[in-house]
Each structure stands twice: as structure tokens, then as C-alpha cells.
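TA notes, week 10

Several of you asked for a full example with nothing omitted. So below is the full record: C-alpha cells for the whole chain, then the designed sequence directly under it. When grading your own attempts, check the secondary structure regions first.
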């Protein structure tokens, strides 16, 4: 199965570095499960993460995500049951 993650970030807020860092974290963790990860420029304070088109994190509702929280949400959709190792235990 192929999985796609999209991180939409606000260019007006200059959140590209944050989005790129989160993208790197996800690609490193799910290098065999993800077939694509895209960074989508947006405006209006948006910072959202989607997996296969499904919104899993929205800054407007939840604030900025900790990487472990997003990894759990992505894992639940692309590799259910898989352990995230030390990052999961430390939170």
C-alpha cells in the first residue's frame, strides 16, 4: 500500500523550516511506508498534516504538534501496531 503525507504551512508566518523539519522526522521514521511527502505552501496561519488526504493535525485546533504526537497519528494510519521505539516511551 502506498501512503502520502502532506504538510501545509503558512508562508506568511515563515513556517517552512518547521514544516521541513517535521517532514524530515516523518520520512526518517516511515522511510518504507511513505511513498510521498509534500510540503504545501499556504496562508492565514495554516499548519496542517494530512495522511492520504485525511486531516490528522490542525494547528488551529491543537496548536503546534510535537513530532512524537504526529508520528503516532501517522503510524496509526500507515503502520498500525508498529512501535515507535524510544520516542514513544519518552512521552
Amino acid at each position: 500500500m502506498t501512503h502520502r503525507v502532506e504538510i501545509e504551512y503558512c508562508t506568511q508566518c515563515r513556517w517552512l523550516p518547521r514544516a521541513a523539519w517535521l517532514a524530515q522526522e516523518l520520512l526518517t521514521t516511515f522511510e518504507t511506508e511513505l511513498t510521498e511527502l509534500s510540503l504545501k505552501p499556504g496562508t492565514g496561519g495554516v499548519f496542517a498534516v494530512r495522511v492520504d488526504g485525511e486531516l490528522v493535525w490542525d494547528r488551529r485546533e491543537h496548536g503546534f504538534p510535537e513530532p512524537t504526537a504526529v508520528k503516532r497519528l501517522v503510524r496509526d494510519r500507515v503502520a498500525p501496531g508498529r512501535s515507535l521505539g524510544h520516542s514513544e516511551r519518552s512521552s
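The mean pLDDT is 92. Use that as a sanity check on your answer.
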